[in-house]
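Entry for heme C complex. Fields follow.
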Amino acid sequence: MLGKNLIFYVMGAMVLALGVSSCQPDEEPDINLPDSNPAIEATFGNNIDVDNPFNYANPDIPNYIVKDNTGNNPITDRGATLGRVLFYDTNLSTDNSVSCATCHQQSAGFSDNDVQSQGVNGLTGRHSMRIINTRYAEEERFFWDERAVSLEIQSTMPIRDHGEMGFSGENGAPDFNDLITKLEGIDYYQELFTWVYGSPEVTEIKMQNALAQFIRSIYSFDSKYDMGRAVAPNDGAPFNNFTANENAGKNLFLAPPQFNQQGERVGGGAGCGGCHRPPEFDIDPNSRNNGFIGVIGSPGVADLTITRSPTLRDLVTPSGSIGPLMHTGFNNTLLSVINHYDNMLPSSDNPQLDNRLRPNGQLQQLNLTTQEKQQLIDFLNTLTGSNVYTDDKWSNPF
Ligand code: HEC
Ligand code: HEC
C-alpha cells in the first residue's frame, strides 16, 4: 500500500515537474493554470464560476438508491461543467443551429415535446429520450435499441450522425476532425479544456468523458414517491404520504400477474415493476420489446429492436403535462399506455416480444378495471420530481 502511494506520489511530482497532465480530469487546486480565464468570463458571465463550480461530483442521493453505472469515468465538478457547455453549444452542429439541448430540453425532462426532433439534415427517426437518472441504472447500454455500449460512446454519436448534428463526413459534410479543429479555435474551449484536463487540446475522448459526466449528473429524487420511500421499510409497505389509490396503484405496479392458460389475469398485479424496477425505475437489462414495434411514418413496418426505456420517473412534468411516449412518440396519455399492456393486441409476427407479456404463449390480457387503471396512473404521477426541471446546474450556461 505504502509502496503504491509512493509511486503515485513520484509520478505526480514528475507530472508537475514536466508541466504535462494526464487525460484524467484534475480536481486539485490550480496547477499550471492561468489566474484568469477571460474568455470563460466574457462568454458565460456569472453562469460559470471557475473558482467555485457547481457541485456535480457529490450528489445528495437517497440511501435506497444503489444502482450506479459510472464505471471508470467518475464525475468531477470541472468535467461536468465542460460537459454542460458542450451540451448546450450549437457549435457542435455543422450549421450552428442544433445543440444536444435542442432535442433534450430541461423543461421537458431533457426530452422533446415534438414526436420527432429537428436535426441539421432532417427529422430524427425515433422520439428523443428523457435523460434523467441515467447513472442510477444497472443497464450500461444506451439508446432505445441499446446499440451504444456505454454512455461515453453514445455521447458523440449524435454529433457524428448526419441527420442530427452533421459531422458525418458523408456526402461532402465535415467530419469529426473538422469539429475538433473548429472547437480548438474557440477561445472559451482553450480555457475550459485547460481547466479540466491541464491542456487545451480537444479530443473525442475528452469530449465523451465530459458529456457523459454531465449527463450522469442529472438526477431526480425529490418526488412524492421518494418522500414516502425514505421512511418506509421497503417498496411493498404502504407509504404513509400516499392516498389509498396511490398505494393500490403501487401494489398493482409491483406485483406480478397470475395467468390462466388463455393468458388472462386471474390474480396478482400488472407486473410493471419486473421491467421498470423500483426504486430507480430503470429498465431490466434483460427486457426484450414490449409490443410497441412501430416505425414513425412507416405503417406496416416493424422495428423489433427496442429493449430500453428511460426511467419511468418524471414521465409527467410538475405542471401535469406529458410528452410523447415510447420510441414512436406514441399518444401522450398514461391511460393509452396502460391500455396497451392491459389488452395486448395481436400484431405482425414479433418473436422478440418479452415472454413476460406472452404468458403460456398467449398475449397478456390483464383485464384491469377502470378503477385499477386510474390507480396505476395515480401511482405513476407520484414519480415526478420538481428540481430537475429548473436547477441552474443543468441549465443553459450561454
Ligand atoms: C436532433 C435531435 C437530437 C440531438 C441533436 C441529440 N439527441 Fe440525443 N437523442 C435523440 C433521439 C431521437 C434519441 C433516441 C435515438 C435512438 O434510440 O435511436 C436520443 C437518445 C439519447 C441518449 C440515450 C438515452 C438513453 O437512456 O438511452 C442520450 C444519452 C442522448 N441522446 C444524449 C445526447 C447528447 C449528449 C447529444 C449532443 C452531443 C444529443 N443527445 C443530441 C435526439 C437528439
Ligand atoms: C417486459 C418488460 C416490460 C413490462 C412488463 C412493462 N414495460 Fe413498460 N416498457 C418496456 C420497454 C422495453 C419500453 C420501451 C418501449 C418503446 O419505446 O417502444 C417501455 C416503455 C414504457 C413507457 C414509456 C416510457 C417513455 O419514456 O416513453 C411507459 C410509460 C411504460 N413502459 C409503462 C409501463 C407500465 C405502466 C407497465 C405495467 C402495466 C409496463 N410498462 C410494463 C418494457 C416493459
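NOTE: The CA atoms of residues 247 and 395 lie 34 Å apart.
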